[in-house]
Design goal:
Elements (H helix, E strand, L loop, with lengths): L1 H5 L17 H12 L16 H14 L13 E5 L6 E6 L2
Antiparallel strand pairs: 1-2
Helix pairs in contact: 2-3
């Protein structure tokens, strides 16, 4: 799939010179280079799927494209405040991804 997408990346670095692309391979490669592929905190118990840090970094790439604040390592997994629908009270039941 990546090779197919790469064939359509234009001179602007965008898909079809029009759409931004978040490169998950780059996110993972940067993380592996930083932590080392044997880091037990990088992978889930199955040894194949990445744990939360990869998800946080991927989500932050998307948030950067949207030009909104990213989520720090410390805040990842914490509850975010959300406004209740019925009144102006706040509820903290929503989670950051």
């Amino acid at each position: 799939m990546r090779s197919e997408v790469d064939t359509h990346i234009g001179k602007t670095g965008k898909l079809y010179d029009r759409y931004e692309v978040v490169d998950y391979y780059k996110v993972m490669n940067d993380l592996i280079e930083e932590k080392g592929s044997a880091d037990k905190f990088l992978w889930m118990k199955d040894g194949i799927h990445p744990r939360g840090e990869a998800s946080r970094r991927y989500m932050n790439e998307i948030l950067q494209l949207m030009k909104v604040a990213t989520v720090s390592h410390e805040d990842w997994g914490r509850r975010a405040q959300t406004r209740l629908h019925d009144h102006n009270d706040w509820d903290d039941s929503a989670l950051f991804p």
